[in-house]
Amino acid sequence: MEMLKRPRRLRGSEVLRKMVRETRMDKASLIYPMFVKEGSGIIEEIPTMPGQFRYSVDTQGEILSKLQDAGVKNVMFFGIPDHKDEVGSGAYDPEGIVQKALRRARKDFPEMYLITDVCMCEYTSHGHCGVLCGHDVDNDRTLELLAKTALSHVEAGADMVAPSDMMDGRVRAIREMLDANGHYTAPIMSYAVKYASGFYGPFRDAAGSAPSFGDRKSYQMDFHNSREGIKEALMDVEEGADIIMVKPAMAYQDMITRVREEVNVPVAAYSVSGEYAMVKAGASLGYIEEERIISEMAVGVYRAGADIYLTYFAPEIARLMDEGRIG
Ligand code: PBG
């Protein structure tokens, strides 16, 4: 049989397969999202995210040192406050939970890179991502509060802020506020291409941030749209975003690829709580092999074009890289 091209030639051994790999990964690009909660002595497992925990400021060191040992140096903080109000004042309180966690982490883990999620849904009594005007989020009033929140995070020790609220104009409002206060060097990672998604379900349990009425469809994107995502990404770059994020990751890999082609800043992808929960649930029932699924999800995101990967599986992925199984 005459056949000059045989793709199987390059698959003949592990050494060769590794030589010709197209996707290379590095632990330096992993970000681990974690939950810090008001109180003390808390290490509580999140029921819908087995293996993930809420920590108080006095216990957060436990996970931070595990991450450091695993070679994961980047974390993103989400706060769970002990009180909520109409205007989400806990989000920008200098004594708020994230601010306290930052000051402690800055002191105890000077090597770690500290990123914060900037949003109001964990802090508002109604669970929406900004202040309300009637039954809708008041975009422009919310901008001031988001900018204040970002500033208070940077002042408490955050290296980078990541607005996830999806208000129009927030990147610019935050950039101007940080610059006006001399924080020119703190980058903004924008959740620019963020869809209204069922994949956030477990997170809302974890953070107690489900909206008390309605949904987030008037500010997060409709999952039928992709051109709109490019519009959001380009606008945020114009407004000063340093990194553009696509979220969720698994069902949105086309967007990772498209955004990668359209912008000249690093692209991050966030494998969200529901992606984590599905893997855990499927694996605990014996339907799938956890490590193989984690590996394919991670490599898939980088193969699609992501430069940075946010995932609750960051420590496991770091280990799989150390063991030479992926990357
Ligand atoms: C805050 C925020 C959410 C997530 C990240 N930032 C929840 C939401 O928008 O409802 C989701 C993260 C995850 O599901 O892992 N707005």
From TrEMBL:
Naturally occurring in which organism (per UniProt): Fusicatenibacter faecihominis
Full protein name: Delta-aminolevulinic acid dehydratase
Binding site for Mg(2+): 232
NCBIfam families: PRK09283.1
Keyword Phosphoprotein: no
Gene Ontology MF terms in the entry: porphobilinogen synthase activity; zinc ion binding
GO CC, one annotated term: cytosol
Catalytic activity: 2 5-aminolevulinate = porphobilinogen + 2 H2O + H(+)
Residue numbers binding Zn(2+): 119, 121, 129
Organism classification: Bacteria, Bacillati, Bacillota, Clostridia, Lachnospirales
Any Pfam family hit: ALAD
Keyword Lipid biosynthesis: no
PANTHER family: DELTA-AMINOLEVULINIC ACID DEHYDRATASE
Active-site positions on this chain: 194, 247
Entry's EC annotation: 4.2.1.24
Chain's role: Catalyzes an early step in the biosynthesis of tetrapyrroles. Binds two molecules of 5-aminolevulinate per subunit, each at a distinct site, and catalyzes their condensation to form porphobilinogen.
Subunit structure: Homooctamer.
Pathway annotation: Porphyrin-containing compound metabolism; protoporphyrin-IX biosynthesis; coproporphyrinogen-III from 5-aminolevulinate: step 1/4
Keywords attached to this entry: Heme biosynthesis, Lyase, Magnesium, Metal-binding, Porphyrin biosynthesis, Zinc
Residues annotated as signal peptide: none
CDD domains in alphabetical order: ALAD_PBGS (cd00384)
Cofactor(s) essential for the protein: Zn(2+)
